[in-house]
Amino acid sequence: MKSSKTIPGPVNAMTVDVEDYFQVSAFEKTIHRDQWGSLPLRVENNTYKILELFEEKQIQATFFTLGWVAERCPNLIRDIVAKGHELANHGYSHQRATLMTREQFREDIAKAKTILEDLSGTAVQGYRAPSYSIDETNPWAHDEILETGHRYSSSIVPIHHDLYGIPDAPRFMYQCDNGLIEIPITTARVLEKNLPCGGGGYFRMLPYWLFRWGVKRVNQKDQQPAIFYFHPWEIDPDQPRQTDIDLKTKVRHYLNLDRNYHKITTLLDDFNWDRVDRVFLDTV
Description:
The protein is an alpha/beta fold. The protein has a single domain, classed as Glycoside hydrolase/deacetylase (TIM Barrel), CATH 3.20.20.370. The protein is 34% helix and 14% strand.
């Protein structure tokens, strides 16, 4: 069943980046990949909690899922699809695209796509780069995404940031030269600057009213649907705490984890939401 909210206004796209707390790029120097298999998985239970919330709110969404997680949680993958959500690709190993060669990138996303499709029995159309790591240094990434059988990407954030972003990229859905559709994370344009209002750490750290204002501005002033994202670990205040990280990383990762589930619930109530493919691709 499609999302059936009755709030006035356009339908926006809700997305979840399915990865565990120990896989975030901010921890890549303190938790090595060869340790992942020895750590307890929390992503499965957290994602089921999200699925229950979406079912309660009669919302369907797009789940950009790591191949590594899918291998270990096959029933979760099947349940995401069985509940009517879109399954999309987040790569296999959560390695940033900017740290991979073109060949490594292709192998990573192709491997994850095969795993997701084999487990779910559905075609995977969408891809999102870990940590939004497609920028001016790797323009070939869009070619590899298309050539590995994807129809769209949601890997660009048109803001200034120390870890990602292409500030002068288009703010709304556009078609790359090769025909691939790119759906940037939502920003609000204010005083000739792009302000982030598409989720993630900004959503946890900043006041809720600011994001509500931003999404409404995009819907009403720009007459465009928004695309929003969050991670399962962002509703998990009981996750193991890392001590050997700097203060900036601690703030970015842990601030307001205990409040985020409630904020997301409020956001779901305040706007109409659906899957990426139905919000964006049905209009192409």
